[in-house]
Amino acid sequence: MYEDISFPEYYDGEVECRYEYQGEFTDWFGWLYIDQHTMKSVAEEEGWISEIVFEDDLNQYLAELYLNE
Questions:
Q1: Most buried residue among 13, 40, 57, 69 by CB atoms closer than 10 A?
Q2: pTM of the full predicted structure?
C-alpha cells in the first residue's frame, strides 16, 4: 500500500528553534514535539522510565525520564 511513498528522514515533530532576547539570538537547537504514547514507547525500548508530571487541556505535557537501573 505504501510502496510508492517516500517517508521523511525525520520525525514530524522535529523542529529547529532559537530564542531572541533584546536583540540577542541563541544558536539554533533541535526541539522535539512528541506525543505521550510515542515518548513512553521509545523511552521503554531504550531503557528509560517515564512519568508524566504535568498535563494541560491542550495535550501539552511535562515528563520526567529516569534511567531504568
A1: 40
A2: 0.63
